[in-house]
Amino acid sequence: MAQDILVVGELADGALSATTVELLGAAVRLAEGGRVSVTLLGSAAPAAAAPAFAAGADRAFVSGDGGYEPFRSDPWVAAVQAAITQAQPAVVLLAQSTVGRDLGPRLAFRLDTAAAMDCVQLAIEGGSFRATRPCFGGNALASYSFATSPAIATARAKSQDALDPPRAGATGETVALPGPAEARTEVTGREQAAATGLRLQDAPVVVSGGRGLGGPEGFRLIEQLAAAIGTHRAAVGSSRAACDMGWYPVSQQVGLTGKVVTPDLYIAVAISGASQHMAGCSGAKAIVAINRDPEANIFKAARYGIVGDYKLVLPPLIEAIRALD
Ligand SMILES: Cc1cc2nc3c(=O)[nH]c(=O)nc-3n(C[C@H](O)[C@H](O)[C@H](O)COP(=O)(O)OP(=O)(O)OC[C@H]3O[C@@H](n4cnc5c(N)ncnc54)[C@H](O)[C@@H]3O)c2cc1C
Description:
Elements: E1 5-8, E2 11-12, E3 15-16, H1 18-31, E4 36-41, H2 45-55, E5 59-63, H3 73-87, E6 91-95, H4 98-110, E7 115-119, E8 121-125, E9 128-135, E10 140-145, E11 151-155, E12 173-176, E13 205-209, H5 218-229, E14 234-238, H6 240-244, E15 265-269, H7 275-278, E16 286-291, H8 298-301, E17 304-307, H9 310-324
Parallel strand pairs: 1-4, 1-6, 4-5, 5-12, 6-11, 7-11, 13-14, 13-15, 15-16, 16-17
Antiparallel strand pairs: 2-3, 8-9, 9-10
Helix pairs in contact: 3-4, 5-9
Bound molecules: flavin-adenine dinucleotide.
């Protein structure tokens, strides 16, 4: 049954964010012929409408007012609510990002409906929207249907597939949204976290090290493994235990209180696989574990495992990967 879907779009460096493109792909599949709308806010929004149509949107609610940048919830929630009032969607999709985490529950409260956060699967079953998300620290999946409308869901980056191929040259309807409403908050400054290479959340391969590395020097081998795989493909992560000891920057922590990553391949080196760590990596398509304890919990989640001392396992593995090029 066709249903209308609204995606809350986000822009990154003046272009549609990768997650917005993925959500538009999901929206086309869920709409089953219904109308897909997107909200685009900020000075780069008008230019982002055409890529949004190519990514699957039929209609874009746009305001190019620079007052929407940087993100503040008051003006954004008012603008998205105005778009929802016009579009009357059955489902509102947001990214599990700073924006989505903030707006999802606010919209649900304002619209007297419910929000399912951090979803990894979005589906229509028996004509109804169903959202699935990890629970119990990533050890189980909970599936939600909605008794109220619109259903609101935030989805993890890379959990949805973009339209393939995109609708090159597609056009759609553009509806102007008003400029930002008054905000009760002011952003007084922004500080960029120092980071080189791929962002953890964007990397198709994440190589993470844990307390079993024995010290910060152990991370040099982890970095060498990531470099052998390719700096354009692999990023380095860490368990909280290793971050807490100051062996690796907290910005690279994976887990419940760190980053949630969904790479194609997650290589966990000297990490036990505590539930709080798995909450950040259980969405990986394949996990490879390297641990000297054959009983380590990580092996339960791993598709491939190597039981051994990482100091003996990694050097030949790095050599073998280098030899592939
Ligand atoms: C509220 C809360 C939030 C948390 N959030 C997070 C989070 O976001 N991320 C996170 O990671 N943790 C988090 N934790 C901590 C979590 O519970 C674990 O303590 C932590 O993940 C353990 O890190 P680890 O696996 O590196 O260390 P350990 O559990 O100590 O495991 C080290 C592993 O290394 C192996 N090993 C040792 N030497 C070698 C060797 N030479 N070669 C190969 N293997 C070796 C050992 O067999 C062991 O399995 C949180 C905890 C709480 C209470």
